[in-house]
Amino acid sequence: MEFVVLIGRILFVILFLSSAVGHLTQGKAMAGYAASKGVPLSGPATLGSGVLMLLGALSVLLGIWADLGALLLVLFLVPTAFLMHAFWKEGDAGARQQEMIQFQKDLALAGAALIVFGTHAGGCDLGPTVTGPLFG
């Protein structure tokens, strides 16, 4: 069963790793988009969110303090849901629907990251890891 959990960890972090690469390599364009959404200090926020995703995803993937990595992902996901996907501000029905989907996706992923945190910090098996939990 531990390899099933490892496969789940791999699948879970693919999105964050690819997004982190985009944030770090196409920061100017992403900062412009963030600014259009009203994110303050969009340049540093884009860089910071890229670093959060990269560190969190690698931590969960490699099992190096995966509980801390999961919290880093939550720290990225919750503000992103509210700042970047404020569907309640959209006037167009299609845009509102798309933003609602992205908002709910971010919250669902935050929930999954909290499950990884609670599972690992609580002493449950996360499959093969390099270290044990930092918390718990």
Rg, rounded, reads: 16 Å
Sequence of secondary-structure elements: HHHHH
Low-confidence segments: none
| Total domain units | 1
Total beta strand runs: 0
Q: Give the percentage of residues in beta strands.
A: under 5%
Net shape = globular
Largest sheet: none
Q: Quaternary state, please?
A: single chain
Number of helical runs? Answer: 5
Q: What helical percentage do the residues reach?
A: over 70%
Class by helix and strand content? mainly alpha
Q: Round the mean pLDDT to the nearest integer and report it.
A: 96
For the record, give the distance between the C-alpha atoms at the N and C termini, rounded to a whole number: 23 Å
Could you give a short description of this structure?
The chain has helices at residues 2-25, 27-36, 42-62, 66-84, 93-121.
Core attributes:
globular; single chain; 0% strand; mainly alpha; 136 residues
Your description of this structure?
With 136 residues, the protein is an all-alpha fold. It has one domain. Helix content is 76%, strand content 0%. It has helices spanning 2-25, 27-36, 42-62, 66-84, 93-121. α2 packs across α3 (42-62) and α3 packs antiparallel against α4. The longest helix is centred in the C-terminal third of the chain and has 29 residues, at 93-121.
